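In this supplementary section we document a worked example of the pipeline. Step one takes a protein sequence of length 367 as its only input; no multiple sequence alignment statistics are reported here. Step two produces a three-dimensional model, which step three serialises into structure tokens for compact storage. The input and output of this example are shown verbatim.
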Amino acid sequence: MQHTKNDDRTTRAALLRRALVPAAVLVLALPGAADAHTASVTVASPGPTIGPGTPFTGVSSHADCAQGLVTGGGADQSTGDNRAGNGNHVMGVVPSADGVTEYTGTPGVVGTDATHWLAFGGSGSNSSPAFATTPYAMCLTSNGIRHTLVVMAKAPGPSVGQTAQLVVATCPAGTELLGGGARSTPASVGSLKPIASYPTFADAAHDFGAKAAADGETDPDSWAAVGGIGGGRDDDNTTYAYAICTGEGVDVRHLATTVRFHEVTGPTAASTSQAVTAGCTDDDGVLVSGGAAASGGNVTTTDFTKAGSGGTHLIGSFPSDAAGTPVADGTTAADWTADIHAGGSPSPNTSSDVWALCLNVRQGPRE
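The serialised model returned by step three reads:
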């Protein structure tokens, strides 16, 4: 049965709701500053890019910030109304300097002041003319955050069937994490895909990124990506993690980020999917980015584990309204939605996870 993104979201919203950020602009009053620090985040999205049209291939799309800097972004996929849709999966959600080029070279700080977001869709052994990927960029305009850094980490794998590869990108000391992304290559390995992209911490309490940031935690410093694989194998498989951090000249002593997280069980039945939403409250500030995972559950208290099937995958991670509907180009969002698909086989012990990362200001300077 094909999942419809608007089905039952009103019911879910009633369970998940809290106050929405009432305005597009957050005024952050800095003690001792002559001017208030303002920050606004606008969603950019050009609409869907059709494809991939053949099995074991990928399609790339991009969203571009006409104003401001990209702090995060996502993708939403159309999968069609037949079993071919089981194979359409998110292959990556990553920042870009120009809307075309990926950061894939030497790990570390790989870019500054990125203004574009890339979204990649991939196909397994089936394809459909209905396949499409819609990219979303979170565009931050702020008189206090005029520069950002992109940090990339990568690792080979996963290359053995039914396994996963964790990669963590960490912001430099003295900067603040604003968002991140994940990528798996190549698209020719049809069961390879990123199955998680989330904020975390490079500390022992979070097993240096293997445990995700929990609801209510503040100031994560890292972004994790998990690449998963089903039955396919390839020696050239690579998983990338990206962290977007504040850059040169940004005083982070008064900045704070808060994580909002929600996890639900499922989807477990073959050819079904499930969406889950989390969002920022008034006190949290403005939504700057979000993450998603198809996991084995308990991702904030135990090390990340795969879902019960190698075919379980992401078909959406995007800014949304409270009911989980993607927001339109040029608007604002306070919520983030993850959409998880079980694939063509039953997926026992599966959970759907979503993170929203919210930006605000501290009442006093950081200790």
